[in-house]
Amino acid sequence: KAGRSPKLAGTCFENNCTDKLQNPEELSKNSNLEEPSTFTAKIAQEFGKNYFAGKGIVGGEALSIQTQQNLADSIILGIEQGVAAYQDIFKKEDIKISEFLSPKIYLDKLGEAFNKNFKNISTSELNMIELVISGENFQNTKLFDPLINAYKNIVLFFQKETVPESYAELHLFALNIMQNTLFSIRSMKNIEEDPAKAIVGIRLYQKETERAQEFLKNLKTQVEKDKLNFTENDGGYFF
Fold first, then answer.
1. What is the per-residue pLDDT across 50-66, written as a single tens digit (0 to 9) for each?
2. In a 3-state reduction of DSSP, which class is residue 99?
3. Backbone conformation region of residue 59, classed left if phi is above 0, alpha if psi is from -120 to 50, else beta
4. Could you report the per-residue pLDDT of 114-172, keeping only the tens digit for each?
5. Which of 65, 163, 190, 236 is deepest in the core (most CB within 10 A)?
């Protein structure tokens, strides 16, 4: 309440103390403050400003339930803004389109690429993050490495592979889903150094999972329209 820091052995003279804490306004004006090095630090800094501003309004007394809720909401808003910052980066001009390529040949190659890169991965991304959080240390983050490599490879495949014109929009949609999922997993892996960013990664992953389901539904519609069939020996059987 006196505005003094319990970490410093200060002295006071006529109510002026050498260990006085800076208020949020003074902190924001302090040119020596470094920019937050992580997303977590950024959210914590904003939370600190809001918290001490709220404490100043009530004269150091306990914050009201509504104020506490507003503080919690500000953290949630920061997370959602972090998720919204990830936008699709690939455009139609970034993919190779052919008027003559057979959809069957294209889907066989696409299925083979998915099967090749993900065949040895048996644990889902969210199960991996659960293993990391439940462990006593963060050694389990290495579990993400094969997934990161798989998504990197599939993104490169989508960029290089030629697509039939009727599948171009689907191809572009899937490319951005794979790229955003790669971002999300990299963020999840960073949970020890930047837990707030890892939460952003989890939220982004959930968002892209919903989009992946939409992609598969639209792919099914297009395949049925083209009256394509796949045997177990075909790469497209993967879907």
1. 888 777 766 667 888 88
2. coil
3. left
4. 999 998 888 888 888 888 888 767 778 888 899 999 999 999 999 999 999 999 999 99
5. 163
Round to whole Å and give the CA distance between 166 and 222.
8
The C-alpha atoms of residue 220 and residue 236 are separated, in whole angstroms, by 11
Confidence of residue 30 (pLDDT cuts 50, 70, 90): low
Range 65-76 average pLDDT:
86
Give the orientation angle of helix 103-118 with respect to helix 195-225, to 10 degrees.
150
**Measured between alpha carbons, how far is 178 from 195 in angstroms, rounded to an integer?**
22
In this prediction the pTM is: 0.77
Find the DSSP H helices in the chain: 24-29, 39-57, 65-84, 103-118, 125-134, 144-160, 168-189, 195-225
Helix (H) or strand (E) holding 13: strand 12-13
Overall residue count recorded for the chain in this entry: 239
Q: Which residues pair with 4 in a beta bridge?
A: 20
